[in-house]
Amino acid sequence: MRKNNGLRKSFKKIVAWKYLDVTVLIAGLGAYVAQAMATINSWSIWFDEAFSAYLIRFDFAQIAHYTAADVHPPLYYWALKAWSLLFGTSEIALRSLSVLFAVIAIIFCFLLVRRLFGRKAAYITVLLLAVSPMLIRYGQEARMYAMAAAIAMAATYTMVIALQSKKKLPWIIYGILIAAGMWTHYFVAMVWLAHWLWRALTVWRRKNSIIGYLKKLFTKEWAGAYALAIILYIPWMSSMFHQLFDIQSGWFWISPVGADTLTNYLTTTIFFQQHDQLSPWLSLLFLIVVIALVALAVIAYHRTRGKQRTAYMLIASLAIVPVLLVFIASLPPLRSSFIERYLMPSVVSFSMFAAIIIAIGTAKLKSWAQGAIIVLVAGSMGIGVVHAQTIGNFNKSANVSIDTRQVVAHIEEKSDGSEPIISRTPWIFYEAVFYESAAHKVFYFGDAVAGAGSGSLDMLRGADSHKITDLKQFAEMYPTVWYFGEPGDLDIAVPFNGWTVKQSFRVDDPITGKKRYQAVQYDTRTMTE
């Protein structure tokens, strides 16, 4: 009887812990989704999102064709196309797919940390991910960054299971996820390199011969998983080389790396601000957080042993190695490819790593001290969330906000009837056409994309109902039109011979206060040759 009672108590305890795990995870996911959805519709889509939205107008084969002329693989666009067939093409519909992938990433982070380090570290992980400003910001964006993080975290969790078991299925799933990551975003390759580096270090033994070491490194299962990934990736491989060596060799927009690049990465991850944008108080807070985390990382490292030390190095590798690899690969004379959102798997891993070092490093401190450190880190990231939700889609590279939705809305308010909108550039066209209506269709000039052989304008080069090829004929069809772009495009002179201005307005940047857009209504009936 005593034995049975002991079993019942143990069973009840296990059930209680499982219930608590599920409760904490659901609460964390709820907090994350609430923050992400609260402002998901607060700002206009910007060019990258607009490109995604326009691309999914085509079928799956055409999507692959057009994205091969750009810089990313097609898997995310295929997923977005399928998602749009179910839920539509509104801002919320398109952006919510990224929220889903962010949720998946959080779940796998929780499962990974729970398996390797226990529930305390897993609970802190969920808390930090729920207030990760980068994950919330790019979990609201119709791009592939959250999807890349979800695949990377799922693959890492699967790899751990595969290494701990003798079953073949986890290795097959791991190989599939490796390929899926490469079909989603090329920077996911940095995660696989982190896996390789971690594995190379963990199987190393001083007494091993080179042959013995290589046998342990290249086990049948490990090599088989990557062989499967390569096979699954072969159909896209030629397109990848074309994108990397032909398209990107001629142009690219990412700023060069510098002495402050890695610091900016950290301040963006925590506060969603560049380091030179931090106030004196936030700079002090950042310094305190970094010192605390570095100290705890050293303490946690020395407290881990055996398998836990190996697991510690895995999470550290995920958080650090991809960032350093991209930074090194961006140093002159190489072209820079360092941009924070491209490193979303490492951003997510930063929260995991911070949670682990807090859980282990503060284990011998009193409860209030442990709580204070958790509040310090989570509170700092919470400040970052507020900042991310305040500036929205502000483009830090160009130092401008994107507000084409507001421009189109003003045009609709100031129009008397059906009046088309002409975009000054095809780049702005992508953003504006998302908000067009039957009364206010958006157009672009055909000659602006005539020479577009590759890149994001390739899908505008062919026949398109939005293209203006004969301006005189277009003016005969529409006696009144709106023409808009950035103020510098429109202030100098009337762009078309004989058109007369009826009215105009401008939209200022809500962040910088500078002139952002100007729209002019023209009477086209006096157009001359």
Descriptive labels:
alpha/beta, 6 strands, 22 helices, 2 domains, 529 residues
Relative strand content? 5-15%
> Structural class given helices, strands, pairing?
alpha/beta
Shape: globular
Strand order in the sheet with the most strands = 3-2-1-4-6-5
Give the terminus-to-terminus CA distance: 102 Å
Number of strands: 6
Provide the domain count: 2
The ordered H/E elements are HHHHHHHHHHHHHHHHHHEHEHEHEHEE
Task: Round the Cα radius of gyration to an integer and report it.
Answer: 26 Å
User: Largest sheet, described in full?
Assistant: 6 strands, mixed
Individual helix count = 22
Low-confidence stretches: none
Can you give the helix content as a percent range? 55-70%
Mean pLDDT: 90
Short synopsis of the structure:
The chain has 529 residues and is α/β, with parallel strands linked by helices. It has helices at residues 2-38, 47-55, 60-68, 75-87, 91-117, 119-130, 133-138, 145-164, 169-184, 189-202, 210-217, 220-250, 261-271, 280-303, 306-329, 344-361, 367-391, 404-414, 426-433, 458-461, 471-477, 487-490; strands at 421-423, 442-445, 467-468, 480-485, 500-508, 515-523.
